[in-house]
């Protein structure tokens, strides 16, 4: 008989920080104590953990399809998830293989975890989408999910329940968990333009995203600084615009690999091709795409945003986004639209003439809207939805009702959330979560304390907030420092977007996150420390 | 005939940042341009680079002892330095080994670098010291050093002159360089107590220190949080005080390895055993070493600084520092002495009584001085010199004339430098170089702009400033993030301490440092980027 009460998990895993009795020490040091929720991160919606514990052996433990499951052994998504989580749990216990045949079996052993999927097998090969159901019911010891969307988080939760007892044996307490995300869109933005990010770095961070139940990789793939996307239709864009045409590009095969790696972990890949600003690198390979700037009556030799007055611009965009719509399977594309500087447009006599013809007066926002409007029509014709940065909304561009407005400007984000949702648009929040801004100390707490629905608005408006994204812009990060800078700081955002609204206890979060970060380290991810502490198995790299 | 004029090095190595003509882009972006000094870092004292260039092949190029050199092939310090620098220069060009026998020889090939040492061969096995002569004269293609202390920087400079031409061929321009450090003491402080640093991490950072011509590793090895130093005399200190007695300690063999690895690179290892504060972890393994704190008339169960009123304390310290004096060959030990909190001492009735007996009144600084004075006598008897943090000086402790006072307190460091040197003490500066404090953007510039002699004082006083240290305290760094957080930010400090006083051009520094950081990356060190940019060979890790 299992009694389900919320009880202390006997965690030998990372006993964590020192318990110093430092009366004479002035600094306020966070003191680690074991949370009653052990190392669960992000905290599932409903958790009951029993006192009864079981042991798991690497030689006999299996993750299997439940009999009632609609999934077959041919579903590679499931099979690879089972292997991945087996590896996470037993990866460091390889020495025990020889004990397989000569150990006595033990009634307190847990021999299998069953996975029961209700939805049809055909979904196995599909892509996660904005409407994926990620809910999961966990009983001892059965993961029951309606849809494939719940597999990733269900197995992650199970693996987070496993701990090492004092003899180093893998153990698990029986538990009942009912889980689903609070917000549907939980993203990480990485920027591969300001610094090129080797595929290896992207994959490692997708893997870490899955450990934190993030489900959207917002790939800010190109920008002013470089154009690493190798386009089949316009190969000269990366040929001329990448930092290097061979070593610093993403080939179609690379992109495919990223998308499949993400799919297996329940992660959507949404590429961003930001226009009309942030496009200096596009201009190198695509003649006449950018606006020639003038100084006085002569072209200065430099270029501004995309030239919105030429038909060739729209021909190019139509072809380009047709390619994008086939390369990226997700239903959405991020179209940018932020930070358009009008200086160059203003200097150009042809643009001035066009402004007159269109009766735009001096309002260059109208010209920007003219461009964006045509772009949105082009992208709509490729059957994709789109996300845009908040300026596009602020400037009054006509948007489809299902447009997602991405709020990023800091100070006024509460007001902006109000007005975007009052206008009936779906929105995601990034303003408080620009992780490229660093400061001394435990800034994860700042990210953790954000409440995305803390703005004035009706319940209907609040429902339009489908989530948020942690953004790590690339000015100061590349392969050398990206991963430890992102984790576990982004983990704070992960819990805010997944767990219930009332999960706000900073002390309990510190305790669980300390263990979660050591678990990431043990899985090979260089997640940086929260504070003075140690992990039983320190990072093996440099 | 070589004409020596200062000329542009044709650097294909990391052509660096984008040259965007971004008229319409608001952010002030640093623009990379090749420096006339190429990628030299820190800048040598006198540099003349000729137009004439030579090619180097991995198959035939050799670093050899000059005929006049006093060094023999049995000097392992030299032999390992030759190998290390050969590897740095040709490590990525292994594919060319097969071309050895069937290539034609070329008159413009450089076949060898000669190394000419004047000082006796017997010095080969010695340790670098505070009086080591690191000067070096470099002619095409001969490194002439008086003493072994010049080898490291001489070879580093030579390797920094080598670049890849547009065909990928390793090339070098003839040059004449006269080099010596401006300051004798150029250190990095790493803290292995707040987080344990695996040996691998320490060695990688010693290696990087050598690339930046740092010559002191200040090993802040123990502190409140943990005691990872395994003492032969008092093994219970780490047995009880380390995070883990096996996985999180430095054994005698580990310490020996660190010291030898450093020696081969011209780096001194100065350990810090900070007392009487910062000693919580000592108290776990050494009964009665720390002061019992009282609440009211009863011991509270917690402990304060080292107990200065017991004879057993001084017996312990005498034995302990006798061991330290044999384990660490350097002539100096750092004895700490910072941040002593008097609360616990004040609460203890035995201490109160002692204060009365000694006529110290209420001035607990006198008690602190009493302790430190006795400690200094103990350490003096082990034939070591010592460094102490500035509070020990501030509190008026009697110091030996050759004591080095370490200035670390921020705001008033100019005044402190004045008063320390006015009192006739040698000093090193760290106050402006606490690299654990991070902020957004290019903070290396802030470290670079520091002028250590910018305080009021006579020329005699200025001569007492023998250098400085960049400190990376351990609250927020461990194996996951230490290396990219330290480099290239510490490189800014390296140039300030090595190069001439008038080397202050931030633009030129940016250009050279961008290349230097890519060189560190190419040598396998995850040195983080200065700004949007790329390296031809990005970091291969995650």
Automatic annotation (TrEMBL), chains A, B:
Q: Name one GO molecular function term.
A: beta-N-acetylhexosaminidase activity
The EC number(s) attached to this protein equal: 3.2.1.52
Keyword Signal listed: yes
Q: Where in the cell is it found?
A: Cytoplasmic vesicle, Secretory vesicle, Cortical granule; Lysosome
Q: What class of enzyme is it?
A: hydrolase
Signal peptide start-end: 1-16
CDD domains cross-referenced by the UniProt entry? GH20_HexA_HexB-like (cd06562)
The record's disulfide annotation reads 75-124, 293-344, 518-535
Q: Name one Pfam family in it.
A: Glycohydro_20b2
Q: Name one GO cellular component term.
A: cortical granule
Keywords (A to Z) from UniProt: Cytoplasmic vesicle, Disulfide bond, Glycoprotein, Glycosidase, Hydrolase, Lipid metabolism, Lysosome, Signal
User: Which reactions does this protein catalyse?
Assistant: a ganglioside GM2 + H2O = a ganglioside GM3 + N-acetyl-beta-D-galactosamine; Hydrolysis of terminal non-reducing N-acetyl-D-hexosamine residues in N-acetyl-beta-D-hexosaminides; a ganglioside GM2 (d18:1(4E)) + H2O = a ganglioside GM3 (d18:1(4E)) + N-acetyl-beta-D-galactosamine; N-acetyl-beta-D-6-sulfogalactosaminyl-(1->4)-alpha-L-iduronyl-(1->3)-N-acetyl-D-6-sulfogalactosamine + H2O = alpha-L-iduronyl-(1->3)-N-acetyl-D-6-sulfogalactosamine + N-acetyl-D-6-sulfogalactosamine
The UniProt entry annotates the active site at 339 (proton donor)
Q: Which residues form the Beta-hexosaminidase eukaryotic type N-terminal domain?
A: 40-161
> Which Gene3D superfamilies does the record associate with it?
Chitobiase/beta-hexosaminidase domain 2-like (3.30.379.10), Glycosidases (3.20.20.80)
Decide whether keyword Signal is in the record: yes
Q: Which family does it belong to?
A: Belongs to the glycosyl hydrolase 20 family.
Quaternary assembly: There are 3 forms of beta-hexosaminidase: hexosaminidase A is a heterodimer composed of one subunit alpha and one subunit beta (chain A and B); hexosaminidase B is a homodimer of two beta subunits (two chains A and B); hexosaminidase S is a homodimer of two alpha subunits. The composition of the dimer (isozyme A versus isozyme S) has a significant effect on the substrate specificity of the alpha subunit active site.
**What name does this protein carry?**
Beta-hexosaminidase
Organism source for this protein? Astatotilapia calliptera (Eastern happy)
Name the gene. HEXB
């Amino acid at each position: 008989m299992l009694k389900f009460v919320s009880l202390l998990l006997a965690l030998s895993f990372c006993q964590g920080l020192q318990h110093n009795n430092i009366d004479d020490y002035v600094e306020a040091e966070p003191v680690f104590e074991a949370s009653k929720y052990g190392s669960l991160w992000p905290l599932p919606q409903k958790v009951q953990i029993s006192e009864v514990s079981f042991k798991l052996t690497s030689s006999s433990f299996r993750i299997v399809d439940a009999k009632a499951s609609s999934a077959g052994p041919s579903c590679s998504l499931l099979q690879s998830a089972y292997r991945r989580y087996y590896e996470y749990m037993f990866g460091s216990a390889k020495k025990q293989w020889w004990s397989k045949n000569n150990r006595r079996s033990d009634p307190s052993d847990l021999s299998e975890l069953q996975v029961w999927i209700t939805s049809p097998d055909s979904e196995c090969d599909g892509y996660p989408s904005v409407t994926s159901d990620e809910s999961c019911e966990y009983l001892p010891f059965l993961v029951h999910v309606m849809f494939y969307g719940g597999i990733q988080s269900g197995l992650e939760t199970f693996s987070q329940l496993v701990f090492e007892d004092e003899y180093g044996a893998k153990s698990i307490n029986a538990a009942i968990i009912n889980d689903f995300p609070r917000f549907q869109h939980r993203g990480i933005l990485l920027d591969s333009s300001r610094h090129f990010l080797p595929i290896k770095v992207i994959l490692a961070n997708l893997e870490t995203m899955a450990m934190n139940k993030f489900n959207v990789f917002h790939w800010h793939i190109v920008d002013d600084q470089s154009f690493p996307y190798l386009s089949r239709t316009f190969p000269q864009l990366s040929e001329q615009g990448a930092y290097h045409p061979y070593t610093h590009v993403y080939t179609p095969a690379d992109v495919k690999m990223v998308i499949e790696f993400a799919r297996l972990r329940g992660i959507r890949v949404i590429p961003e091709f930001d226009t009309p600003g942030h496009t200096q690198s596009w201009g190198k390979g695509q003649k006449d795409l950018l606006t020639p700037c003038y100084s006085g009556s002569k072209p200065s030799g430099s270029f501004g945003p995309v030239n919105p007055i030429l038909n060739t611009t729209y021909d190019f965009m139509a072809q380009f986004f047709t390619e994008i719509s086939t390369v990226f399977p997700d239903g959405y594309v991020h179209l940018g639209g932020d930070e358009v500087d009008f200086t160059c447009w203003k200097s150009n006599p042809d643009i001035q003439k066009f402004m007159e013809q269109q009766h735009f007066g001096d309002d260059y926002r109208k010209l920007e809207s003219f461009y964006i409007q045509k772009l949105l029509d082009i992208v709509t014709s490729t059957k994709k939805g789109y996300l845009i940065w908040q300026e596009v909304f602020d400037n009054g561009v006509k948007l489809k009702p299902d447009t997602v407005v991405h709020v990023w400007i800091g100070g006024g984000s509460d007001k902006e959330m109000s007005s975007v949702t009052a206008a009936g648009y779906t929105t995601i929040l990034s303003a408080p979560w620009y992780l490229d801004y660093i400061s001394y100390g435990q800034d994860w707490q700042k990210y953790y304390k954000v409440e995305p629905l803390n703005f004035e608005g009706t319940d209907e408006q609040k429902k339009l907030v489908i989530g948020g994204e942690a953004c790590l812009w690339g000015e100061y990060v590349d392969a050398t420092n990206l991963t430890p800078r992102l984790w576990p700081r982004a983990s704070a955002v992960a819990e805010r977007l997944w767990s219930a609204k009332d999960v706000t206890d900073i002390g309990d979060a510190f305790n669980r996150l300390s263990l979660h970060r050591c678990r990431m380290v043990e899985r090979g991810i260089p997640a940086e420390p929260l504070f003075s502490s140690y992990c039983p198995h320190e990072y093996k790299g440099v």
